[in-house]
Every structure is written in C-alpha cells, then in structure tokens.
Write a structure and sequence with these properties.
By secondary structure, the protein is mostly helical. The chain has a domain of 54 residues. The chain is built from 3 helices and no strands. The termini are far apart.
Length: 79
Amino acid sequence: MTVTIPDSLTNKINEWAGLLSQTPEEFIIRLPEERTEHAGACDETVYLAKSEKNRKRLTKAVKDIKSGKYESHKLINDD
C-alpha cells in the first residue's frame, strides 16, 4: 500500500518519532497497535460503567485522581 503524506504531517511524524527514539517507520507501525490497545481499555471501561455501582466508583476515582487524591505504588514485578 502506498500513502501520500503531506509535508506538514511528515514533519510532525519525524518530530514525534524522534522524541520516542524511533524511526518514523517504527512510529507509524506502532500507532495502530497502540490505538487497538487503548480501544480495549475503553471497551472495558464502557462495560464496567454499565453497572450503577461501578459507574459511581469510576466517577469517584476520576475525581480523586484529578484532585490529587491517590497513592503511587510499584508494580509487583517491577524491578
């Protein structure tokens, strides 16, 4: 497949890839993968929000995070 990318977008892709220490090609290939992973998280949130109890918990969690009420912890397998 061949896609023509405008120069302004090519410049942005090069800039973003550089910030992530990737080639522009690596950046473009990873982008759909990351979108797919993010979509899964969104689907899960929608599923959880179907329950009134879970919806209240999610809403409270977002409010707490935005107001700085949270604790940071290392992951169990984080070395």
